[in-house]
Design goal:
It is a single chain. Helix 1 crosses helix 2 and helix 1 (3-15) packs across helix 3. The N and C termini lie far apart (43 Å). Strands 5-8-11-14-17-20-25-26-22-23 form a ten-stranded mixed sheet, with no helix packed on it. The radius of gyration is 20 Å and the shape is globular. The protein has a domain at 74-206: UDP N-Acetylglucosamine Acyltransferase, domain 1, CATH 2.160.10.10. The chain has 276 residues and is of the alpha/beta class. Helix content is 18%, strand content 29%. Strand 1 and strand 2 form a beta hairpin. The protein has helices spanning 3-15, 25-39, 57-68, 92-96, 262-267, and strands spanning 46-49, 52-55, 73-77, 80-84, 100-101, 106-108, 113-114, 119-120, 124-126, 131-132, 137-138, 142-144, 149-150, 155-156, 161-162, 175-176, 181-182, 187-188, 193-194, 199-200, 205-206, 212-214, 219-221, 224-225, 229-237, 251-259.
Length: 276
């Protein structure tokens, strides 16, 4: 049997009533093999097919099984006892591939993939199922949520939140494609896709519920930012502006997208000296 078929079989057993108390060593061995495959980048929670990002349902089910079929146990890290179903990820392989992670607050959970030549600054959190590509910077106070897919040579500015999606399992997670630069304080949630080589201004909220006014193609988009755009937050008039209870009008957030200018690209260039 393949890993996928083993996970799908275990998922069905869980639906039929298998609990953490009933899980055997063989069941947990399947889950351990699955986590190792995630950490090696051999399987991913979502992949691009035909130009569209789609969730791998069986992978997300495998992640959920690690919560449903494991007991919460006391664990030790840095002299502190915590309680979780999973230990933290082993990081010995990161140094071998030129990746750096600073201590005292950088947490990489089991089942997370971190590529080579990456930098993770403390405090930062990378959750199970997340995929962080080669050469990517995860800056201080950043969160990379469960199953989030972060491409290569991405810059996540300080205090950036990348949302995670585990349920429902068929939903695709947040995706930040190759070469993107997110300014400090950005929030990307609910399966939003940030197109490759885009530059997003500080404190921008990207979510499917907020419209993206793409001035390049003169259209209004929801749920994704096209590639090679410069995006920033603006406020537009709300449909409730004329309400008797609101004096002086009401406004709602929106995102404006334009072409990326050359000086913007120069300002976000990767600094190779950081990787030497």
């Amino acid at each position: 049997m393949t890993l996928q078929s083993d996970v799908e079989d275990l998922w069905q057993r869980k639906q039929d009533g298998l609990t953490a108390a009933d899980a055997t060593g063989d069941h947990l061995a399947v889950l351990d093999e699955f986590l190792a495959a995630l950490e090696a980048g051999e399987v991913r929670a979502a992949e691009k097919s035909g130009g569209k990002w789609e969730a791998n349902e069986w992978v997300k089910r495998g992640i959920l099984l690690n919560f449903g079929l494991r007991e919460t146990d006391p664990r030790e890290y840095g002299g502190v006892t915590y309680h979780d179903v999973l230990p933290l990820r082993e990081t010995a392989d990161l140094g071998e591939r030129g990746t750096r992670n600073t201590p005292d607050g950088t947490v990489i959970r089991r089942g997370a993939y971190v590529g080579g030549d990456a930098i993770l600054m403390s405090p930062a959190f990378v959750n199970i199922g997340a995929h962080v590509g080669d050469g990517t910077l995860v800056d201080s106070c950043d969160t990379v949520g469960s199953c989030a897919q972060i491409g290569e040579n991405v810059k996540l500015g300080a205090n950036t939140l990348i949302g995670g999606v585990l349920e429902p399992v068929e939903d695709a997670p947040v995706v930040v494609e190759d070469g993107v630069s997110l300014g400090a304080g950005c929030r990307v949630t609910s399966g939003f896709v940030v197109g490759h080589d885009s530059v997003v201004g500080e404190n921008t909220l990207l979510t499917p519920r907020i419209p993206v006014y793409d001035l390049v193609e003169a259209e209004v988009l929801y749920g994704h930012l096209p590639p090679e755009r410069r995006a920033f937050t603006r406020f537009v008039e709300s449909s409730v502006s004329e309400h008797d209870l609101i004096e002086g009008g009401a406004y709602k957030p929106a995102v404006v997208a334009t072409d990326v200018e050359e000086d913007t690209l120069e300002a976000t260039e990767r600094e190779e000296a950081l990787r030497e």
